[in-house]
Amino acid sequence: MPSSKRNQPNPTTAGNILGAISGLIMMASAVPIVTWRNAAGEPLPKFVAIFAALMVGVAFFAVCAGILGLFGIRVTEPDADSNPKDQ
Prior knowledge:
Blueprint: H1 13-35, H2 46-70
Helix pairs in contact: 1-2
């Protein structure tokens, strides 16, 4: 029976915590972005507001994952099938 598992890295505990915090940051930033009004009282377009909140969460995750990597804390586990020399 062929394995249906794709070659995707699994998150570590640090990766899970970072993902949860990134989701919270994304939701916390969505409220002021979605409720923002300009001087004329017009809101941002829905797509722009949602995409901006999404990008805040993604940027937070990327920056924090980079900082954790500098300290040697892995965000994802190495693939079990990968070559040990690549690690």
